[in-house]
Structures are given as C-alpha cells and as structure tokens.
Amino acid sequence: MTQDVPDERAWKARLDDGGKQIGIDLDQSQLDLLWQYAQLLRERNQHVNLTSIVSLEGILTLHMLDSLSVAMALGDSRRLMDMGTGGGFPGIPLAVAFPDKDFTLIDGTQKKIRFVSEAITALDIRNARAIAARAETYTGEKNFDVVLARAVSSLADLVRDAGRLLAPRGRLLAMKGKLPEDEIGAVPRGWRAETTRLTVPGVDAERHLVALSRKSA
Predict the structure, then answer these.
(1) 185-216, pLDDT tens digit by residue?
(2) Which of 38, 67, 100, 130 has the fewest C-beta atoms lying within 10 Å of its C-beta?
(3) 172: left (phi > 0), else alpha (psi -120 to 50), else beta?
(4) Closest C-alpha to 60, from 100, 24, 8, 25
(5) DSSP-assigned beta bridge partners for residue 171
(6) CA dist list (Å): 89 to 38, 64, 94
(7) What's the rounded Cα separation, in Å, for the pair 16 and 18?
(8) 3-state DSSP: the chain helix, strand, coil percent, rounded to 5?
(9) β-pairing verdict for 207-214 and 191-198
C-alpha cells in the first residue's frame, strides 16, 4: 500500500485544515475517529474490494474531504440517508462531523454494507446505522429531510428511486463531478434543481452539488 502521507499527525492536521476551509471545525476526537475509519477501510480492503482509493492521501482528499464538502448544504436537517454509501462515504465523515444529526446508510452490496456496519459498531458512532438495501426497495422508516447520493445515479433515477423517501419539504442532494447539464434538463416535472459548485481542499477536479426539491414545497 502507498504510504504517501507521512504519519497520523500530518494526516489529521491536513484533515483539520481542510475541514476549516470547508467550514467545519473538527475536534480531536472527531479527527481520531476519521483516522481510525481510514485504517479500518484500508485493512478490510486488502481482503474485500471496498474502494479503488487505497492510499492515505486518496482517502483523505477523495473520500473524507470530498464527503465533508457538502456540509454547509445540510442546513438544519435532522434525518439523513446516504444512498449507495459504498465504503461509507459521504455518510460516515458527515455523521462524525455532525453528531446531532441522524444518518441511515444504505447499499445493495452486502460486503460493503457489512463492513460499514461493523465499523460503525467498532468505532461507536451512535448517530449512524447501516442497512443492506437499495433505495427503490427500501422499506424502513421514511420522511428523510435529506437523501444524499454520491455519484450513484442520474438525477431522474434519483427522483424515481429516492423521492418517495423524503419528507414533504425534503431534498435530494446529488454529489457530481462536472455540472450534469443533460441530467438537469431531464429532471422530472414537479421538481426543481439548484446547483452549487463545491471546492474540495486538495482536489483539482470539478465538483458540483445538485439539490432537488419538489416545486409544490
């Protein structure tokens, strides 16, 4: 494995600095938790394919800080779903950063959601839970204030599969790379799309957030 961030202290310092650039002030216990999560991810990834990003540098920028980049868009939401969480992103970093918010992380791939569930238990992240499910077949409690989707589906598919999971004034937040103009043009009638360009410390590639909400709301 590539050890391209020199040590734990330097990694946490960069995460702390990146968080501040985004607008989040992480305390030492939160930095410790995210470091431990990174270690668990790398350890399990040697045996089970959870992510193609395995370097500490990549996990820091392309997973942790990329996940946290949407923090200011969460507003006063209390109940959030991370749809297609994969290795736990963006749900785990956001749950650690916002202990007052409640996170449900779902994924249809058993090996991935099993890892996320075991890591949540091991690290005692009490405001997050992992459920093996896909959005279109999810049968648990609904009425989420926010459903987050990080590069998992088109905007139209997101409305189709996750729109029913939202509270009346809830929002779908789609994390994208380049601005998906074709997808925005195909958003179903009755929904509005608002776009925001995101800045991820240490990442040069484009990042955008598309917020979808019902026009009647």
Answers:
(1) 999 999 999 999 999 999 999 999 999 999 98
(2) 100
(3) beta
(4) 8
(5) 146
(6) 11, 8, 8
(7) 6
(8) 40, 25, 35
(9) antiparallel
